[in-house]
Q: What sequence folds into this?
């Protein structure tokens, strides 16, 4: 054999002698071994991604949940891809690490893999810790989002407690760091609330987390001498996430602590209803409705001194018609504040039904709604699958043990994508036709008068 061919031939045992990790990967996968030129760490990472594109592409884990396995292979294939993604969370390239973090997060959001995650808990925690400490905004966000899903997978217990002990101080530091990215601080605030809700077993740690989140969102409160309307700032999105995370943790606090927080915030929180950011107004309104629910749960004859001024403000928001506000924002705001007003005035909650598989869950309180919304934000479209199979979430929503279904039943329950498309198209046409008829009737009445 000529010397040049012999030198370029891949070794049987894996990597070629010497050279970069990318060359080793190429030899291992059976790809052609080309002459290696000097290149940077960034190039090395890109080369690694070219051989592991199935791992590093988050889109390889579609958000359709368990359908991923039916379409792309077996459980072993999924775990094999996940192992590759977990390895890439330690890559030298920030883009590769971020893509790997998002890929793992998408996979764990769409599938319950408790045993797999349990075995690799320390590796995942170390990767998240490094990315939070050394990464920039997008990477920190991806790491924090993965931490939330990791705790949801494991549920309450020693494993989640250790994750919180490791990541809690880092999350708190980022949240309170004024020089850090607002988007990263926002995601870390949500993550801190979710992980603490799941894992904390130390009451002092719970109180410490509440104080940390309070120190953030209370900056949006009106000062005593300030009569101006609270204006939104770049920090408003952070304040919203901190308020919602704080409200979530308040639902698991002892009654004595809840009373203290109610006394402290009940008269200051309504000032956020005047903020010019629609999302802040909605977050404040829903938080107030939940606080009223908690207060009346502790004292059935609970009395709020400024009830008249509060209901007047809520009614104005529920019927808001200001022209300088976007139509979409006004529609969303009016819908939410109609429900908030009913909760404050009439102690009523409009029950919502969530369907997943053959089961149904009724959301009949603000506490349950806020908890559901929080976990849905973390899991995305994987929420329904987790409600079916995740024991922790089923315990949170009192759904009992998972319902066991055989493969044949599951197959009959699935509607092919093409059929779903036809069904949705027909429904859209029917709605359009009904609206057209309704508009025609209104036009006729207008002409008559």
A:
């Amino acid at each position: 054999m000529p010397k040049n061919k012999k030198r370029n031939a891949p070794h049987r045992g894996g990597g070629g002698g010497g050279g970069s990790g990318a060359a080793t990967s190429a030899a291992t996968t059976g790809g052609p071994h080309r002459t290696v030129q000097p290149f940077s760490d960034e190039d090395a990472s890109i080369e690694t991604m070219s051989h592991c594109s199935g791992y590093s592409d988050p889109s390889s884990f579609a958000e359709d949940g368990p359908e991923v396995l039916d379409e792309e292979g077996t459980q072993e294939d999924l775990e094999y891809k996940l192992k590759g993604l977990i390895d890439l969370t330690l890559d030298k390239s920030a883009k590769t690490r971020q893509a790997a973090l998002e890929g793992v997060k998408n996979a764990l959001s769409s599938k319950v893999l408790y045993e797999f995650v349990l075995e690799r808990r320390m590796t995942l925690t170390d990767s998240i810790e490094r990315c939070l400490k050394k990464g920039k905004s997008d990477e920190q966000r991806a790491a924090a989002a993965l931490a939330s899903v990791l705790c949801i997978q494991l549920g309450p217990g020693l494993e989640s407690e250790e994750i919180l002990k490791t990541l809690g101080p880092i999350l708190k530091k980022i949240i309170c760091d004024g020089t850090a990215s607002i988007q990263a601080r926002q995601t870390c605030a949500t993550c801190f609330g979710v992980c603490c809700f799941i894992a904390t077993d130390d009451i002092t740690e719970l109180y410490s987390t509440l104080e940390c989140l309070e120190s953030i969102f209370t900056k949006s409160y009106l000062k005593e001498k300030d009569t101006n309307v609270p204006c939104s700032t770049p920090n408003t999105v952070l304040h919203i996430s901190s308020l919602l995370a704080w409200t979530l943790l308040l639902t698991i606090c002892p009654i004595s602590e809840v009373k203290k927080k109610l006394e402290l915030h009940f008269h200051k929180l309504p000032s956020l209803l005047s903020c010019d950011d629609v999302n802040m107004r909605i977050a404040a309104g829903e938080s107030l409705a939940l606080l009223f629910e908690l207060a009346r749960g502790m004292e059935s004859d609970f009395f709020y001194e400024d009830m008249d001024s509060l209901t007047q403000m809520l009614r104005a928001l529920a019927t808001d018609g200001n022209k300088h506000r976007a139509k979409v924002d006004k529609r969303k705001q009016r819908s939410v504040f109609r429900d908030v007003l009913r909760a404050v005035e009439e102690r009523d909650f409009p029950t919502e039904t969530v369907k997943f598989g053959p089961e149904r869950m009724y959301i009949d309180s603000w506490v349950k709604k806020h908890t559901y919304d929080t976990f849905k934000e973390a899991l995305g479209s994987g929420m329904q699958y987790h409600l079916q199979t995740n024991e922790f979430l089923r315990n949170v929503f009192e759904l009992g043990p998972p319902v066991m279904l055989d493969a044949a039943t599951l197959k009959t329950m699935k509607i092919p994508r093409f059929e779903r498309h036809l069904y949705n198209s027909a429904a859209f046409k029917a709605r359009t036709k009904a609206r057209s008829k309704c508009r025609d009737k209104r036009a006729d009445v207008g002409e008559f008068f």
Observations:
- The longest strand covers residues 352-356.
